[in-house]
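> example.struct
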């Protein structure tokens, strides 16, 4: 079955696995997804990730992170731009998630970065997703 929005599919799998208390989740890999997961790791939302090869298909294994009370670190993760509705923001209008406690991931001309870095570099782009 083909998926019309593979990034939203990955975010949904991470959200559901985190809510269910799973240790890890596997998603089909792509360069874009790897960059999004790198940001999730650098911002402290996941433990780690690695690329594995399942029967000739590149798969991305994401290791989820929980706090001391076994509550998921990812409280919410939401896709902003969709294939049918692209959402763009300039660096001056970059949204703040929960007054800076959350993170917005932006696809810019310099690559996929957080909203804070985009504002610092004075570059706008497409809003991929928000995480809190």
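> example.seq
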């Amino acid at each position: 079955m083909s998926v019309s929005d593979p990034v939203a599919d990955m975010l949904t799998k991470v959200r559901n696995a985190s809510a269910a208390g799973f240790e890890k989740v596997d998603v089909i890999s792509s360069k874009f997804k790897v960059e999004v997961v790198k940001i999730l790791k650098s911002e402290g939302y996941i433990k780690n990730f690695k690329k594995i090869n399942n029967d000739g298909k590149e798969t991305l294994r994401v290791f989820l992170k929980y706090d001391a009370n076994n509550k998921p670190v990812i409280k919410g993760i939401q896709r902003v731009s969709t294939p049918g509705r692209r959402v763009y923001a300039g660096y001056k209008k970059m949204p703040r998630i929960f007054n800076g406690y959350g993170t917005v991931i932006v696809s810019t001309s310099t690559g996929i970065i957080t909203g804070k870095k985009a504002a610092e570099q004075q570059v706008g782009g497409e809003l991929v997703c928000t995480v809190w």
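> remarks
Strands lie at 24-28, 46-54, 57-64, 77-79, 88-89, 103-108, 111-114, 125-131.
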